Amino acid sequence: MECKRFTFTAALLFAAAAGAAGPGGPTKSTAVQLEPIPGSGVKRITLTAKAAERLGIETAAVSEAQLGRRQMVGGLVVDRLPEASAPSTALSGFAGFTPTAGSFAPPPAKAARSQPKAVKAIEGQLLVAVSLSPGEWARLDKEKPALLLPLQTRNDLKQPVLALPSGLEPIEDGKRSMLTVHYTLSAKDAGIAPSRRLRVELPITGSAEKQKVVPYGAVYYDAKGNAWLYVNPKPLVYERQRIAVDRVVGQQAVLTEGPAVGTSIVAVGASLLYGTEIFGK
Q1: How many other CB atoms sit within 10 Å of the CB of residue 133?
Q2: Taking the chain, what is the end-to-end CA distance rounded to the nearest angstrom?
Q3: CA dist 238 → 21, 54, 59, 85, 270 (Å)
Q4: Is the predicted pLDDT of residue 85 greater than 60, yes or no?
């Protein structure tokens, strides 16, 4: 499949090259030129303005942004809180939600007598319960709110909703070494009701320094999983460069290795250039 896609990509480019040459033009088109870059194993691609236009190549600049670190987990909206002194049933996290509508799987019948008594939350407020490991709890920025997002299968929230730290001590599940942490939520917010499952983005402590970012569409992964992008050192010239992606935040890829801030890169059309470079002999 990968080779077929590259072959088709290369065919598109050479069709563009032929169009640039014109129906009565020379047999050998100069719309695309490939030049080996000594010591790199990659090729420099030079296009005519017409070929670049036909391929829809768009460029952008490497930039810096201050992006807080966040962790996505699963959450459950509840209106009652188990007593901290009683045994609790830990949440299993986003990946561990059970198919049971509106709840997590109940504990075994033999443990029914040890279930915690429920106490009602503060009047007018709901709680969002998330399950974290002790390590995740240690990294959590406990002063900042959590961002509530809908499940992909139920995209009915009007907009993202913030839930504030509750100030409650985490409830420990000794058997699973997990902690249940609660955030508070106004009962009126976005019509969220108890037993609702949500995705929850939690803020993680870390450096507030600016980080190097590029549009995620500029990143190309080869068949071996290596990440690349194309730099644009001068008009209509493109060179493939290896990068290291730390994480993806929205539509931006955060780089730990890559070109300097301000470098012109290909934001749209990287896959077309890669197919041309590999199969454009």
Answers
A1: 13
A2: 20
A3: 20, 16, 10, 64, 10
A4: no
